[in-house]
């Protein structure tokens, strides 16, 4: 079964390593009419979101005591951090396992590092609106420490983004060099001085490999730290009396689930709308393999949620009952139900069937479901946390009314999402969306050998 799956992944053919670079680089620097039109449409929607943000800022201000109308802005910012921030981890984690099916997803995941630039700008106003920690229960031990928590949260996000961009640059330099030398024109001529230093020597490849391992490990640690810290500072600490040691881990897990879903959806769109030569680099077996991870993450999502829920449910403290009513069963009941349905129920019910997993459309549909679920999770957490006011005492003793989005909130949400897609499409013209060096490396471990009545691809495992 393993040999058959491997054979199908490359259509049972030996691929010329030179063809990999030429096919992936074909049309790399070209911006067609459809591509340009899409970029302009995304830019217009993004600018509408910027205008909506400006109008909202002029109306309510950006101050700690004026954060109550910014719940949906905080939710979409957290959603982008969860998805785009976790996507590069997909490339790092799968690369460390040294499997072969992950190669189509590596560069797609790494390109989301550049979206982190938008994340930094999104969190600047949110950090300004974050109230002082005096009188609140937070993860910080003292308010006397300089810059707590605003500057430390900002530096954490900034270092995460810089780490991700460094990971992308180190991984993409060999591919950019090949794409430049495979292409002609003004753009390739402009980029040649930037990649001229790359010679592909054994010493450079050793540094390249060690750099990817080091940056990947650092990125993983920073991502889990910042996902947990942002959840504590922007959600739990704003709710008086909420104590939950499982929620930060749950948020980090949801981020990984969202990052994988984002990568799968992007791979499907690349395979569907990319050029004919590159479609064969996205075999069904890659989607089939990553769908098993998606199934496991959906089960883990349910486990972490149930563990946190049962702790509050059996505690039966008045503040714990109020928190459950606010975030799950009364005020934000519908976002919670949609969150459970899209993040766990639908992915689980679909992915338990092998015909769904063993396809391209099945995992892609589940990926869209997971993205919806993650968005509704940020809505049910961040909107009530930012919208809570007039709290007396150190515990939440009443269920606040649900806050719905207005027209400006909707414009901001679509503007942010358009900004994410816009940055990604521009990034895809800086580095090839398919990792050339990883595919060529994979070819070194592959040989077609006769076995009984057929020819099968034999794949070796890296040391």
**Structural class label:** mainly alpha
Order of helices and strands: HHHHHHHHHHHHHHHHHEE
CA gyration radius, whole angstroms: 23 Å
What value does the average pLDDT take? 87
Spatial strand arrangement across the major sheet: 1-2
- Strand percentage lies at under 5%
What is the total domain count? Answer: 1
Which descriptor suits the 3D outline?
globular
Overall strand count: 2
**Termini Cα gap:** 23 Å
**Helix amount:** 55-70%
The major pleated sheet works out as:
2 strands, antiparallel
Which ranges are low-confidence, i.e. pLDDT below 50, for 5 or more consecutive residues? 1-13
Helix tally equals: 17
What does this structure look like?
The protein is mainly α and 463 residues long. It has one domain. 69% of the residues lie in helices and 3% in strands. The protein is built from 17 helices and two strands. It has helices spanning 2-9, 17-25, 33-60, 71-96, 103-110, 116-129, 150-182, 186-195, 202-234, 247-273, 284-315, 318-329, 333-351, 354-357, 361-387, 407-427, 436-443, and strands at residues 446-451, 454-459. A two-stranded antiparallel sheet has the order 1-2. Strand 1 (446-451) and strand 2 form a beta hairpin. Helix 4 packs parallel to helix 16 and helix 10 (247-273) packs across helix 15. Residues 1-13 have low confidence and may be disordered.
């Amino acid at each position: 079964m393993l040999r058959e799956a491997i054979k199908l992944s490359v259509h049972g053919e030996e691929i010329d390593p030179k063809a990999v670079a030429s096919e992936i680089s074909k049309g790399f620097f070209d911006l067609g009419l459809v591509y340009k039109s899409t970029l302009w449409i995304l830019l217009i929607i993004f600018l509408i979101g910027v205008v909506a943000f400006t109008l909202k800022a002029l109306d309510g201000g950006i101050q700690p005591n004026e954060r109550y109308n910014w719940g949906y802005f905080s939710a979409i910012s957290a959603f982008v951090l969860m998805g785009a921030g976790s996507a590069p981890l997909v490339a790092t984690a799968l690369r460390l396992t040294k499997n072969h099916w992950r190669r189509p997803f590596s560069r797609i995941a790494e390109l989301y590092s550049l979206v982190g630039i938008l994340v930094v700008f999104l969190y600047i106003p949110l950090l300004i609106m974050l109230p002082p920690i005096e009188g609140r229960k937070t993860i910080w031990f003292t308010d006397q420490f300089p810059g707590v928590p605003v500057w430390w949260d900002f530096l954490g996000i900034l270092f995460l983004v810089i780490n991700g961009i460094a990971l992308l640059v180190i991984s993409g330099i060999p591919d950019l060099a090949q794409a430049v030398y495979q292409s002609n024109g003004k753009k390739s001529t402009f980029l040649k001085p930037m990649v001229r230093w790359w010679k592909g020597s054994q010493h450079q490849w050793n540094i390249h490999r060690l750099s990817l391992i080091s940056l990947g490990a650092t990125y993983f640690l920073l991502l889990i730290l910042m996902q947990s810290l942002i959840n504590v500072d922007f959600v739990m600490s704003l709710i008086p009396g909420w104590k939950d040691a499982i929620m930060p881990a749950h948020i980090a897990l949801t981020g990984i689930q969202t990052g994988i879903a984002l990568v799968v959806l992007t791979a499907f769109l690349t395979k569907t709308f990319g050029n004919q030569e590159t479609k064969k680099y996205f075999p069904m077996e890659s989607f089939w393999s990553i769908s098993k991870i998606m199934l496991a993450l959906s089960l883990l999502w349910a486990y972490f949620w149930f563990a946190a829920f049962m702790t509050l449910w059996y505690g039966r403290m008045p503040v714990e009952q109020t928190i459950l009513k606010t975030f799950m069963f009364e005020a934000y009941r519908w976002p919670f139900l949609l969150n459970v349905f899209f993040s766990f129920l639908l992915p689980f019910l679909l992915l338990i069937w092998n015909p769904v997993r063993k396809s391209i459309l099945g995992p892609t549909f589940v990926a869209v479901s997971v993205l919806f679920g993650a968005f509704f999770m940020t809505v049910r957490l961040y909107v009530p946390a930012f919208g809570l006011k007039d709290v007396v005492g150190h515990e939440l003793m009443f269920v606040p009314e649900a806050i719905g989005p207005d027209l400006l909130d909707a414009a901001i949400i679509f503007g942010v999402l358009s900004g994410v897609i816009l940055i990604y499409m521009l990034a895809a013209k800086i580095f090839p969306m398919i990792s050339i060096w990883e595919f060529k490396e994979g070819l070194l471990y592959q040989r077609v050998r006769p076995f009984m009545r057929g020819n099968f691809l034999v794949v070796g495992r890296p040391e």
